[in-house]
Each structure stands twice: as C-alpha cells, then as structure tokens.
Amino acid sequence: MRVSDDEMDFVEREGEVEEVHDHNLVPGCRFACDELYLRAQPVMILSQPTHAKPPLDVFAYLVCNSELRFLKWPFSDSDDDSDLHDQCHLMDKAGAAEDEFFELTRLHQLAVKVEVRNQISALETDLMHEKKKSASAIVRVEKYVESRREMDRKLDIQYQRNIAEALDNHMTAVQRDHEHRSQIEERRIRNEAAIEEARKEKALQEEKLRQEMAKAEAKVKLELAAKKRAEEAKLAALEDERRAAKEASEREAIETSTRAASEVAAKEATGHHIDASLGILNGSKTDGQSSGNILKAAENALKLEQERLQKYKEFEEKTKALGLSSYKDFQRLEQQFARRIRQISGTKENVRTKVNELIKMINDPLYPQPINVAVFVRKIVSYFEVDQPNKVTFACGHVIVFITSQVPYAMDLLLAELHRVCIYTVPKHIDYSKSAFKSKEDYYKMIGYREENGKIESTDAYLKRLACYMKLYAALVQTEAEGIQNPHGLKEGWAWLARFLNALPANVYAGVALEVFLQMAGFALFRKYRSQFRKILKNISGNFLVALKAQGEKVKEPKLKQVTGNIQYYIEKNEFLQEPEGWKLQGSLLSGSMVPELDYPDSYHHPSNHSRYYQQYSSYY
C-alpha cells in the first residue's frame, strides 16, 4: 500500500503539536479536591505562559489515582492567597474547555476517519489500476509468448523445408552424378568396343597387305627367276659364239696373239705395283698428320665414334633400300615427328604423353620402323639447332631415354647424328693445317661450320649452335629414371669429361663446350661422384683455365675471355651445388596404371619388353 504525501504531512504536523505540548508541560503540586465536584472525565492541567492567553488547543490533562494536579504557568508565590477562590472558577472553565476539547477530538477523529477512508479508497483505486496493469502486462506477455511460439513454429517449418530442399538437391546431384558416371562407363565400353573393332579391322587390313606383299614378292621372284634364266641363256649363246670366234682366230695368228698378250701382261703388272706403292705412302702420310698433328681426341673416343658412324651409314643404306611410297609421305611423316617434338615441355604429364605418341609413331606399321627411328633422330637433333629453354632440354632428355629403352639401337643413331653435327660431343678437335686443307673454308666445314649463300657462317653463329648441341648432349647423359637404365648416362658423361681434359686443347670451341656441359650436367655429376668431381674442377681451374686465359691474351678474343670468366665463376661460386633451372620435371601425373600394349608386328618391337618398360615408366612418375 502507498501512503500519500498529504497523509505524511498530517502525521508530521501532529508530531510537532505533541512536541509543543510536551514542552509546555511542567511538574505541578499535588492537592486534594474531595469537596469539589469532579466529573468522571480527566481534569485538564493548564499551563500558560505569562505573556499570552492560553489557547484552547494547548490544554493537557492528567489523571493519576483520583488526584488532580493543576498547574498554571508561570508559578508565583503571590498566588497562594487566592488559590481557594480561583478553584471553583477554574473548574467551571475546565468543564467548558473539556466539552470543547471533546468536540474537537470528535471532529478530528471524524476528519481522520474521512482521511483514512479516502486513503483506503485511493489505495484500492491504485490497487485496481495495478491489477489492471498487471493483467495487461500478463496479456502482453502471453501474446508475446504466443507470437514467439508462432515464429518458432514458422522457423521450424522453414528449416524443415530448407532441409528437405537441400536433401532433394543432394539426391538430385547424386542421381545426376550416377547418370554421368553411367554415361561415361557406357562411352568407355563403346570406345573400347570401337577400338577393338578398329584393331580387328586393322589386323585384317595388315593381313591383307601382307598377303598382297607376299603375292607381289612371289611375282617379282618369278619375274626375276625368268629374267635370270633368260639372261643365262643369252650369256650361254654369247659364250658359244665367242668360243667359236676364238677358235677360228687362234688358227690364223697364234704366235702374234701370244706375243701381244705377254707384253700387255708385263705392262699391267708393273703399273699395278706402282699404284699400290703410292697408295700406301699416301695413306701413311695422311694417317700420320691426322693422328699426330691435327686430330686431337682420345683413342677410345675415336673408336666409339667410328663404330657409331659406321652403324649410322649402314642404317641409312637400309632406310634408302626400304624407301617410302612418295616424297609427300616422307614429308608428312617428318612434319608429324617435328610437331610432337616441338610440343615437349617441362612437365611430367606432357613428357608421358609425348613418349606415348612418339612410341606409337615409331611402331606405326604404315612405315618401316627404321625409317621412323631415322626421322625421329634427325628431328630431335635438328630441333636443337637453336637455343631451347633448360626445362625443355631436360624434358627432351627424359623422352630420349624412355624411347631408347624400347628401341635400343636408336641411342647409337642419335649419338652418331650428334657426332656428325658437333664433333665436340665425341669429344675431339681438329687443328688447322695448310698441308691438310686447301683453304680455311675447308677447315671450317670440317669442324662443323655451315655454308650459307656461298659464304661460311660467322664464328658467333657456329658457337651458338655448338652450345645448343652440347646442351642436348649434357642433358642426355645426366638423365636418370628409376627402373630404366640410361644406356648413355652419368658414367659416359664422366668418361666424356676425362677424355675432354686429357686430349682437347684450350680454345674458344672447347671452352664453350665445357661451360655448357658443366652447367647442364655438373649438378648430377657432383651428386654421384662428390669428391672426385671436385678434383676434376680443381684440375680445370689449375690447368685448363690457365691455358684458356693464355690463349685469350694471345688472340685477344672477347668471347674467349667471357667463356673463361663464366667457367671460373661456376667453380668459385660452387654453382654445381644448385639444381639447374628446369632440372626436375614439374607436376604430378597421378597415374600408376600401365599404358595399354600396342599390337604391332613382331618385326618392329617386342611386346613383352614394351609392356614392362611402360610399367616402369608409370611407376617412376
């Protein structure tokens, strides 16, 4: 319940009045008033100040054991004489004051009751208002709770709808993926069936072609046999005629013919003897000049070069004998190989793809395998007549290793082609000699210079091409593939370096060849030979570079100084410890499956080896 501000003010005023009364009350004397008429009501004891008339509302009374204590303010000793006279008068006044006091008390009580009723009514009104407010607040809370419940219910429905839509989308995607996979599988089955059908058709065509070729060969053999028999018969007839003529002439001049025959035989014998002697002398002189004076190379290197060039020559004769149906076919074949080689890049996936494509082309039964190999060798070497990025060069090294692992004789042909276009891949060097060469142009042609428009190319152009060929050779010897043996690997690269330092003189050609070889293969050689390779570099720095610097000071050639500085920088900065750019193929093939075996005639390759090499190749990547 709340107490109003008016009620609080009333209570405060009442407290102040009571306090005033307490201040005006003073102790009084006890006296007996048995003879006076006293009512049953308490008697007022008056206290009055001296300077004012006492008001009615300041009387107080006190009844104590039927004794009235009456006091008058202020006390004075002069009033003792008139106390008895004043008592009756005071009693009358006290009765009137008492009535008035009781009336005031009654009115005050009524006012207090009215005030209390008003306050109770106000409190009841406030209570009703509070109840209404509480009920309204409860209603609002219930409405809010109901709205929240409705919102939660709608959110639940929306969430369930979203879940249902997501589940439906997922099931749709799964079904679509399943259908896509089914379509892919169906296409794969159809493709396999088509490939199988094409293979069978190709086999039938090949069988038909072989039968036709067999018939043609049989026909040619028959024609040759008939021709041979006709020639033999013709020769027999001629022989008979000659014999008859001879018998007729012998009777007429037997002595003359015998003498003439004797003289002719003597002259022929003498001429043959002189020619043989001159040939032996000339051959000895030429050999002595080439081996002792102008030709600088190790004996083993020359022997290997001779063997490879001999194989290359025999191979060329065989390919010419096989031939192609037309020049256009041969040109188209060269373009196909050149396009595949130009597409080689420094990624594993690209190398794997190009190896597969080139192997298919080499084993293509439309052309004899020797012709395909010869075209591949020429195109891969001619591709490096101009400078190629390191990553492409290293990738070509991988391609060559994997192809020659399936076609072994291709490596000898490739090396022979490199020896033919660049003698420093042997390694060997030819010094100039006026007695051995008719002119400087002949010497330049001998060591590899090209003639363009009747003029010999510049030394810078020749050195650039020499560096390109050496990049390919160095990338080839340092290529290592797990599970596949490189027939011309690091062992041959180490042998090349030793033969180079032991036999070749220090000049600009040898300097360029050594610089390129170290930059491309030095990292791999150091990984394998470690301290031995450091000894080789120390030998280069202490001997070859000193001779190269002396040669540079002698001829005053800027290119020679540049090459010397590059090699010295390579050794001093230990660049062989750093992996060359593009040395490691990029990317991941993520392929461990074997490439399907190709069905080609057995005369071109061995299927079992083909499958094994492809398995090793796939596992390597």
Q: Would you mind describing this structure in some detail?
A:
The chain is an all-alpha fold and 621 residues long. It has helices at 5-24, 83-252, 254-294, 299-322, 327-342, 348-362, 369-382, 390-406, 409-421, 440-447, 459-477, 490-503, 508-529, 531-555, 558-572, 607-620; strands at residues 44-45, 60-61, 63-64, 67-68, 295-297, 428-430, 451-452, 455-456. The protein is elongated and about 225 Å long. The relative contact order is 0.05. The model is unreliable at 17-78, 253-292 and 589-621 (pLDDT under 50).
Brief rundown of the structure:
This protein is mainly alpha-helical and 621 residues long.
Mean pLDDT: 77
Name the poorly predicted regions: 17-78, 253-292, 589-621
Q: What series of H and E elements makes up the topology?
A: HEEEEHHEHHHHHHEHEEHHHHHH
Percentage of residues in strands: under 5%
Q: Compute the CA-based radius of gyration.
A: 66 Å
Major sheet, described briefly?
A: 2 strands, antiparallel
Distance between the termini: 93 Å
Number of strands: 8
Structure annotation, total helices: 16
Helical content (DSSP H or I, runs of 4+)? over 70%
User: Which structural class should the secondary elements be placed in?
Assistant: mainly alpha
- Write out the strand line-up for the largest beta sheet, numbering strands in chain order: 1-2
Overall geometry: elongated
